[in-house]
């Protein structure tokens, strides 16, 4: 509950929920999957709360949603195919990356130009979709800091 509430308000719920699952002896890959699924509810709820702030046309939203779904499925497939010992070797680096994104995310996204707009060029839309696909694969595989990574998707391509 603490991880979900933290995620809905400020992000970073994985920093509470995932270590708690590991601490209770849940194996690493099931802990990662459980963490991602459990925090998805809070993320979806907070996304619904901010829906009025999104002013994107279908031309912009549909490719981003489709690449998000495809990337998330690819990342989840990769996670399920990763041996536990390999995941445990990669995990500290994933946690470090997520921690750095959480710590410096505002600085990274704060200097970007305004986001994708209704009249965004096809090139801008393709660039944002490719970026979102990479973020979604990461999110499907691990997910820590993915909200901070997703925010620039609507930023640098306008």
How would you describe this structure to a colleague?
With 158 residues, the protein is mainly α. Helix content is 73%, strand content 0%. The protein has helices at residues 2-9, 14-23, 28-49, 58-81, 84-110, 122-141, 146-150. Helix 2 (14-23) runs antiparallel to helix 3. The protein is globular.
What percentage of the residues does DSSP assign to strands (E)? under 5%
Indicate the percent of residues in helices: over 70%
Overall mean pLDDT: 78
| Main beta sheet | none
- Tell me the series of helices and strands, N- to C-terminal: HHHHHHH
Shape: globular
**Terminal CA distance:** 37 Å
Based on DSSP secondary structure assignment, what is the total number of beta strands? 0
Count of separate DSSP helical elements? 7
Give the low-pLDDT segments: 152-158
Radius of gyration: 16 Å
Q: Which structural class fits the helix and strand makeup?
A: mainly alpha
Record the SSE blueprint:
Layout: H1 2-9, H2 14-23, H3 28-49, H4 58-81, H5 84-110, H6 122-141, H7 146-150
Helix pairs in contact: 1-2, 1-3, 2-3, 4-6
Task: Name a few traits of the molecule.
158 residues; mainly alpha; globular; disordered C terminus
């Amino acid at each position: 509950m603490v991880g979900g509430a933290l995620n809905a308000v400020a992000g970073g719920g994985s920093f509470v929920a995932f270590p708690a699952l590991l601490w209770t002896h849940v194996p690493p890959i099931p802990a990662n999957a459980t963490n991602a699924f459990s925090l998805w509810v809070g993320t979806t709820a907070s996304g619904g709360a901010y829906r009025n702030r999104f002013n994107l046309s279908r031309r912009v939203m549909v490719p981003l949603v489709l690449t998000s779904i495809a990337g998330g499925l690819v990342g989840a497939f990769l996670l399920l195919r990763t041996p536990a010992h390999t995941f445990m070797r990669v995990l500290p680096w994933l946690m470090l990356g997520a921690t750095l994104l959480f710590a410096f995310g505002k600085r990274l996204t704060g200097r970007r130009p305004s986001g994708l707009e209704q009249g965004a060029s096809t090139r801008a839309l393709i660039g944002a979709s490719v970026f979102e696909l990479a973020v979604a694969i990461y999110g499907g595989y691990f997910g820590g800091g993915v909200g901070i990574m997703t925010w620039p998707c609507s930023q640098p391509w306008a």
